[in-house]
Write a structure and sequence with these properties.
1037 residues; 84 strands; 9 domains; Immunoglobulin-like; mainly beta; flat; five-stranded mixed sheet; 6 helices
Length: 1037
Amino acid sequence: MSGQGGSAAPALVSLLLLLWHRAAAIEVPLDPKIQQDLKQPPTITKQSVKDYIVDPRDNIIIECEGKGNPVPAFSWRRNGKFFNIAKDPRVTMRKRSGTLEIGFRSGGRPEDYEGEYQCFATNDFGTALSNKILLRVSKAPLWPKEVLEPEVVTEGSSLVLPCNPPPGLPPPITFWMDSRKSQTSPRVSTGLNGDLYFSNVLVQDAQTDYSCNARFLFTHTIQQKNPITLRVQTSEQNTHTHARPHTPESTPTFLSPSGTESAKMVLRDEQLQLECIAAGLPTPTIKWFKKGGELPLRKVKFEKYNKVLRIVNVSEEDAGEYVCMAINHIGSIRHSIFVQVKAAPYWLDKPTDLVLAPDENGRLVCRANGNPKPNIQWLHNGLPIESTATNRQVLGDTILFRSVQIGSTAVYQCNASNEHGYLLANAFVSVLDMPPRMLGPKNQLIKVIKNKRTFLDCPFFGSPLPELRWFKNGQGSGLDGGQYRAYINGTLEIKRALAEDEGTYTCVASNILGKAENQVRLEVKDRTRIVGAPEHQTSIRGSTARFVCQVNSDPSLPITVTWTKDDKLKKDGESLTIPNVNEGDEGLYTCTVASEIDQDSASARLTVLDRPDPPMDLDLSDPAARSVRLTWIPGNDHRSPITEFLVQFEEDRWEPGRWQDLASFPGELNSVILQLAPFVNYQFRVIAINSVGQSQPSRPSPRYKTSGAAPDAIPRGLRGWGSKKDNMEISWEPLLDLERNGPNLHYHVWWRRKDSGEPWSNVTTADSKHVVQSTDTYVPYEIKIQARNEFGSGPESNVITGYSGEDKPTEAPADLRVSRVDSTKANIHWKRHTIPSVTPGPFLLDLVPFSKYKMFMVVANNRYEGPPSNTVEITTKEGVISADHLLTVASPMVLGPFGSLNISNTRKMEESENSSGFEMSESSVCVCVCVCAVNGSRLGRPQLETFLPNVTDFAMRLSGRSTRYKFFLSALTQVGAGESIAEELPHFANEAYIDQVDIATQGWFIGLMCAIALIILILLIVCFIKRSRGGKYPGKT
């Protein structure tokens, strides 16, 4: 039977917990109006720490703050007994607070107030408790006066200098100092207990002022122990010999901890420090590992040269066996430290305040864990809980409430404790009845975007929890289902807002105590969007960049358009212009268009192109007689790839300081072979070129001097000509500076009469010409040239033909005459003196028709003209005249619909014709006009008119307003008619007419008279109808 009962009890508890879990507590909103009217048990909001250490020089303040409605009253217990504050003049309590202030201006010792304090906050609905606060006064005791004997130790052995600081509260921080200041090294270090450890002692460790110092944090003081003198003895051999003996080496041994094993206990979430300090010579190194697992490297820190292993925020998995090993080349030793992790209580499920409506069920849960497992104790308003209450049941870490009433309101405390500490939590149970209230703003207007999911909020509160329903435009049943979904918190979801969803929505909350309602008006708007996003731009430095952002939005919503660059505001407006762009303007530009309910954004990147930076680090290598390798490092291309490198040079002999282009190379090269000229002292620089332009030149390279050589080039422009009739001047272009190839450049020139078989005459000169004197007139010569310098002779030029000087011709052409003359050309003839027959000459072309010319001929050479020949007169024949050459049509005018058409023509005579002696006989030229009526694309019967040359206008009578005419105008000579020009008139259908006829014949006058007659007729008809209204007619009422 007992076995059955034991198995049934846990099942019953689980069933009860499940049933109570389904009863949801009321969540009280933080609305100020609700909080103001809500009656609430007290709550502790602020308190001092459990282990409270105070500075004796300051007043003591023990904090305890709380809240509740009504405002709670505060009281204290000290060491488990009521603390009567009113009887102690040094103790005061702050107004509307439980915080204690203990002052010592009028005397008293802070130590008299040490003890355990606990604060109680009480109002009409219960009592809340603070933690038990252990108050202690900080202490910094003096170091005891003692006489310390000198420490004598042999060189190479280990040593521990004890510190033994005075016990302070909290414990002091210790450190050692001597004349060499602080002591820390792999060989010498301070232990966690404050002692100074020497793994091995050296002669230089002998000092008279080793002192341990204790620093007390609260009093900000440092106390120093009496100095210790250390004397180091060397081996006996050092006394009898001049050579210092070798100190014997030793295997490692542990100074701390001792033995091969030790144990360490640490609490969860605290800090674990494990220490291993070893002696030995040479100084041992320390290594750590954990048996059965890896060291948690993310939590482990090694300090003091691996002598201390520290783990922060220790957890249960950090327990186990830790091994430290001390090693030197003599041997090694190990020590195991068994770490055990315990835990003070910590929360798994901290109890929280519970608000219930009358007759509702609820529960408080208090779950904690620790090592060992903590004990759970419940209190009711600070007193042990009674197990006889009818509507309350305590089940270990849970209290169940059934059918609570207004009088069930109270504060419950849960205490979880074990040997390492305790936890205390307050949680009140408040039974509340309140009619429904609306918490949101009244008659709120909500604007939403079309086709978006929309939520209409209707926050409310009441106890018991009210039921909420939604209505649209005050009609129909509650909205829930289909397009709508109602949530228990009062929110109505519209899954996709459309234009037909606009309207007024009413939410109604009701419970047994009443009801409340609120309205929300919904407007559906078009989406704000960017229809023309800004485009990525690439701009050259110094130019102007412009971004445009085209926007579409609901016309009833005001919008703002802003531009930002890398999240920093630039300006407002649909376009952004950036003048004189530079690298600082490069980045991502975002256009954001925003209305009061939505926004859209689009981004575009501005890339700024610039000239490349100059190349760097020019280097010369691979030297040769006429070449060298130039290498450089390209500079930043500023986002425009380098397409070309231009190599320039400067030489210091011919044109120092002037940089000249040498060669260009593709942009992917940065090491090139330069072809050089001899006998030049070069230095080079490189210019990078991209699509934007050229970089600044690089810094010059080191100089490179090429050796000399004979000239490679042949002097250009060699010619021979006579400046006088008895000489020949031979000239040429001197070699360029870079073609000299060496010093002492001169030219070797040869000449001789052509086809004479004579030997070559020659001369050597540094000039660029040589004059050969006493030559026959105009005789051909063969000429050649060669450049030479100190290194040798260059190639000879090809032989050219030159001539000596010319003289003035003495004879004129004879028997000049012309033949076959027409209107534009004539054939000329003459006799040469060397040839007795007549020579037929060329034609003279482009003569002006019907003109007279005079002509003569001379013999000429490059320098002189001879005497003139006989003079001949030429008269060209008459020809036809082109219309565009002599005639134009001007000033057409139409006079009336049946009037006349005047056309004038203008003669054109070009100045060039008059200046050439051209004359035109007026009697020989006439003007012909041909007129045709135009009917669509067809021409009517032509009418021909001929006028004398001095007539310049023509008038004809038109046959009708709508008739158009085409005129053909040409000039007549005795030879015939020239080319005609055509003109169609009038030019435009709406061309103005100048009427000069009687007004009675005008169309507008006739139309006006007809309109007046029609108005008179209508008035007569209206008058007749009004006179006939008196008759009787049948009808219905």
